[in-house]
Amino acid sequence: MNEENSKHLCAAYPELYGAQFAFACPDSWAPLLHEFSKELLEHIRATGLTVTITDVKEKHKELRICADGTDARADEIIEIAEQSSRHIPAEEYPYLSRLGL
C-alpha cells in the first residue's frame, strides 16, 4: 500500500496501528481496511478489549489480518474483511494478471 494510504489509516486508527505500521496489500483495499478498522475499533471500545493488529497483508490474492487479544466477535469482523477482499476484480492485480495468475 502506498505511503499516503498507510499514513491515513494509521492516523485515523492509532489504537489499532502504530505510526510506522506497514500494510503489505494493494491500495485498492484501503476503503475495505477503513471500514474494517472502524467496525473493529467500535467493538474494542464497547468491550474494553486490548487488540493488537500485528500484520495486514495480501496472500494468494486475499487479505490476511493477524491480531492478538481478540474475542469471537473481533475474529468475526476480521473474517468478514478477509472474505470481502476476495471480491476485488482480478484487474486490481495487474502484476498477477500479466503472469496469468
Describe this protein's structure.
By secondary structure, this protein is α+β, with helices and mostly antiparallel strands. It has one domain. Helix content is 47%, strand content 17%. It is built from four helices and three strands. A three-stranded mixed beta sheet has the order 1-2-3. Helix 2 links the parallel strand 1 and strand 2. Helix 2 runs antiparallel to helix 3. The two termini are 20 Å apart. The relative contact order is 0.15.
In short:
The protein is α+β, with helices and mostly antiparallel strands. The chain has helices spanning 3-12, 30-47, 72-85, 94-98, and strands at residues 23-24, 52-59, 62-68. It has one domain (3-21, 28-98).
Number of helices: 4
Helix content: 40-55%
Strand content: 15-25%
**Count of folded domains:** 1
Report the major sheet: 3 strands, mixed
Structural class designation: alpha+beta
Radius of gyration: 14 Å
Number of strands: 3
Shape: globular
Instruction: Give the overall pLDDT as a whole number.
Output: 88
Query: What's the arrangement of strands in the largest beta sheet?
Result: 1-2-3
Distance N to C terminus: 20 Å
Low-confidence stretches: 93-101
**Order of SSEs:** HEHEEHH
